[in-house]
Amino acid sequence: MRKGFLLAVLLLVTTMAFAQKREISGFLVDSESKEPLAFATVQLLKMDSTFVEGALSNDSGKFVIHAPANEKYLLKVTSVGYLSTIKRIQMQDNHNLNMGRLQVEANATTLKEALVKAQALKVTVKEDTFIYNSAAYRTPEGSTIEELVKRLPGAKVDDDGKITINGKEVKKILVDGKEFMTGDTKTAMKNIPTSIINKVKAYDQKSDLARVTGIDDGDEQTVLDFGTKPGSNKGLISNVDVGVGTKDRYAARLFGGYFKSDLRVFGMGNANNVNDMGFGGRGGGFGRGRSGLNASKMLGANFNYEKKDTLKLSGSVRWNHSDGDAYSKTASENFVSTVGSFSNSINQSYSRSNSWNAQFRVEWTPDSMTNIMFRPTMSYSTSDGLSASRSASFNDDPYNYVVDPLDEASLKDMSADSLVVNSNQRSSMSYSKNKSFGGMLQFNRRLNSKGRNMTLRADANYSDSHSNSLSMNNVHLYQLKDIYGNDSTYQTNRYTLTPSKNWNYTLQATYSEPLWKGAFLQLRYRFNYSYSKSDRNTYDFSNLGEDFFDGLLAGYRLWDNYLNRLDKPYTDYLDTDLSRFSEYKNYTHSIELMLRMIQTKWQLNAGVLAQPQKSHYVQDYLGISADTTRSVFNISPTFDFRYRFNKVSNLRFNYRASTSQPSISDMLDIYDDSDPLNISTGNPGLKPSFTQRMSLYYNSYFQKTKQSVMANVGFSTTNNSISRRITYNEQTGGRITRPENINGNWNINSALMFNTPLDSAGNWNVNTFTDFSFSNQVGYVSLRRDQSSQKNTTKDMNLNERLSASYRNDWLEVEFDGSLGYRHARNELQATANLDTWQFAYGLNFNIRAPWGTTIATDLHMNSRRGYNDASLNTNEFVWNAQISQSFLKGKPLTIMLQFYDILHNQSNFSRSLSASQRTDTEYNSINSYAMLHVNYRLNLFGGKEARQGMRGPGDGPGRDRPGRGGFRPGPPPGGGFGGPR
Fold it and tell me: In degrees rounded to 5, what are phi and psi of residue 398?
């Protein structure tokens, strides 16, 4: 017993000795805004000012530095724009020293001079972080941060809400460095008002593992971090916006926040039927009206709690509802036949959906060596759909003969000349529901202060879904005659019920061993098991006649109206061949060995990932039972090198390779003709694909001239990529697709961004962003059924330039901008698909603020297209948007604004896409021209005087925009049934 007790004491003393390494740590914050001070220089000096050791504070302002001995020191903190801070400290008994939160004062003289003599710089760079001053990007009154982001150099926001900054997709939104609606960038973009934002940072955030271990593992996510204005990060703020417009448009938004030193709570709500477009047509462009009419509603909440150095809690919950009405007309040329293959379609669909999503994060640091993190998630969603379409295929371009190819009279005339191959009328209704939940638990223990770490992690996810679908399809084959010499016809009417379950778990262990100063060897083992099961029952009541279901009322989930017309219960129509059961189990072992070297000037990550994988697949379909097992072995090398020329200039090179296995369902030799016009078959001989990606990235900031520059270039190539070989049947217009390996797919892309003020005060600015891409797309084409397939290559080059020049002072901003896009495409087998097209836009944005609270904002842009063979596409569109607003009351918290969109009714609804197999032109419905009256009220309680002044009126910050916009609520389907598309 005594020996055991002595051994326990010895272990305890040894552990305490390892835990105490004379570590000096703390957090640097701005003394006024209380924001973290990143990239500040921290120096440990002897009492005679001799340098001992140095470090930089990280994004959260944290610094860690080690004292070599127990004695007295000076701790010196310096940063550009701040006064030097010096603290006297004394290290004793090998104990660590926690300095807590150190407040660093701004250099008042420097700041005062800057306020008097200069406008805010648009962009600066620190390390690999781009910092955009929101005050330099004036937006119309009432805006959300989406409109601010659209104005940032190098930023793009597409119609689906995807954000890219300097060529990288943004995965996460932060507010003052804290997670906001994690994983849901769209909600943040549509709801956070610009009136509370002071600056925007764009950087690559380290992974949870890298952050707790202190060793950069190269696993990063690009984030936008929105910093709030000084003083607005305490107390209570709210922003209410209500708008009504012409054509029954409406928009309402509520955003509120409660701030304390350790707690933040945000609440938000949104309802609109204007497609969430954001104000204006900045920079010009076609199709900015966004396809479809969509009405949306949203309620959400987000909170962050932090107990210093011990506990971090955050979470969010969100409800979304949407109603959609999408109409489109499509014309395509398919490169699959020497005689030509053309198709036209009209599609009308209605949809509605509801979804709940919640997530939570707990991070506990019981001591300086231990970190525990837990991230649970859950979601529940339902969706309904109704659709109707009419389509036809032709063996020549139908527009050479008629104006409307899908008109009944046109089809009749062209069929007499044997130009029509098939026509198809299809309608469907669907419903699905899905529930899922999961979580991640991570435990990290630092075994010493030199970088030895052990991390254990477990992930698990489960989902259960169920879907119903009723589809009716009438097909007319003009080139294939029946025994009586008439055109062939057939119908497919099917009702399907598909329950499915998916679940997976991952167990992971990571060990990091310091080799020498700044060098680490990291070993990671990960085991993943995934399981999915689907059991689809198909009830087939085809060939009952084209008019069998005529006159029935269609609506969401009105299955019974159709099923009750059958002679027998629908369960008697079960088709065991078309029903499909599948079960998939996958076992993956991942062993990764990485060498990480971190030096003052450079950083290197190099390693290799080995993945033995075993899959078991069971399927019962089309009367064929398959039970197959496959074992594969994947190797994926990676290399990442970063060089830091100085604090504001960086170069990064990254190389990654990965192996992708073909899906087992693609490898099953099953001939699926359940849809006679779209037949598919598997290929047991498929090989794995091997993809290599390389990128080079450079950014810099020149302090003397206030210029910033970013450049990047990327290249990827894939061996044995999986393509779809298409065999075209000229009699039916149908296709047989078979997966095949193919070589020759590669692409290259590059971008250059440059921003510079033209004068020392920063009133005049010029920004340019150039991007270039070239892709070599290869696919298989079978020109005739009796011929072997041929390889078809499409070379597609795109060159785009955006240039803007602006003037800004305290009351006026004028920006002239222009964009030029050139596309050069060549198709090896179909010369008619070659393109040499130009799209260019030019115009100005104007924002003026009067001292009595009136603001006027407008943008005018000419959008032009040239080089299209179809003269109707070579158009000019002059688009004009405008807004006038007036602020009232003391502090200007109340604003009334009138907005006009597409005043001249010139916006188009057209898009074109091109691939190795087809060219597609699409025309769609959208919201373009209307006017809207808004009332906006901002409330700021408990915040400081500085905060209230910074948020009170247009032009005193980043500017404002109108509220987020949603979509058009269609109500019930027109005519009470499917009918035909309008």
Answer: -65, -25
Instruction: Identify the bridge partners of residue 357 per DSSP, sorted by sequence position.
Output: 318, 379
- Partnered with residue 692 across adjacent β-strands are 657, 717
Q: What pLDDT score was predicted for residue 109?
A: 43
- Write the single-letter amino acid at 224: L
Q: Hey, what's the torsion of the CAs at 761, 762, 765, 768, to 10 degrees?
A: 120
pLDDT at residue 132, as a whole number: 86
SS3 per-residue string spanning 590-613? EEEEEEEEECCCEEEEEEEEEEEE
Cβ proximity of 806 and 768 under 8 Å: no
- As to burial, measured by CB atoms within 10 angstroms (0-12 exposed, 13-18 middle, 19+ buried), residue 513 is middle
Backbone angles phi, psi at 140, to 5 degrees: -60, 160
pLDDT at 232: 61
The ranges of the chain with pLDDT < 50 are: 1, 5-19, 108-118, 277-289, 785-786, 944-982
Say what the pLDDT of residue 341 is. Answer: 80
The pTM of this model reads: 0.75
Tokens of 700: 């810099």
Give me the residues paired with residue 741 across strands. 722
HSE of 159, CA atoms in CB hemisphere, 13 A: 16
Q: State residue 781's pLDDT score.
A: 67
Name the nearest CA neighbour of 189 among 153, 230, 160, 167. Answer: 160
A 10 A CB-CB count for 126 gives 16
Which pLDDT value is given to residue 6?
A: 47
CA distance 165 to 163: 7
Other C-beta atoms lying within 10 Å of the C-beta of residue 481? 12
Residue 240: how many CB atoms within 10 A of its CB? 16
Q: Which residues contact 124 (CB under 8 A, 6 or more apart)?
A: 130, 131, 133, 648, 701, 706, 708
As to burial, measured by CB atoms within 10 angstroms (0-12 exposed, 13-18 middle, 19+ buried), residue 1 is exposed
Instruction: Say if CB 753 and CB 153 are below 8 A apart.
Output: yes
Give dist(CA 419, CA 345) in Å, integer: 16
How far is residue 847 from each of residues 856, 858, 896, 979, measured CA to CA in Å?
6, 7, 16, 48
Give the pLDDT confidence score for residue 295 in this predicted structure.
92
Give 943's DSSP letter.
-
Strands 23-30 and 97-104: parallel
37 close to 29: Cβ distance less than 8 angstroms: yes
> ∠824-655-156 over CA atoms, to 5°?
50
Contacts of 665 (CB under 8 A, 6+ apart): 582, 617, 619, 682
Task: Dihedral sign for Cα 392, 398, 399, 402, please.
Answer: negative
Q: How far apart are CA 936 and CA 855, in angstroms?
A: 14
User: Does residue 292 come out as left (phi exceeding 0), alpha (psi in the -120 to 50 range) or beta?
Assistant: left
From the CB of residue 112, how many other CB atoms can be counted at a distance below 10 Å?
Answer: 10
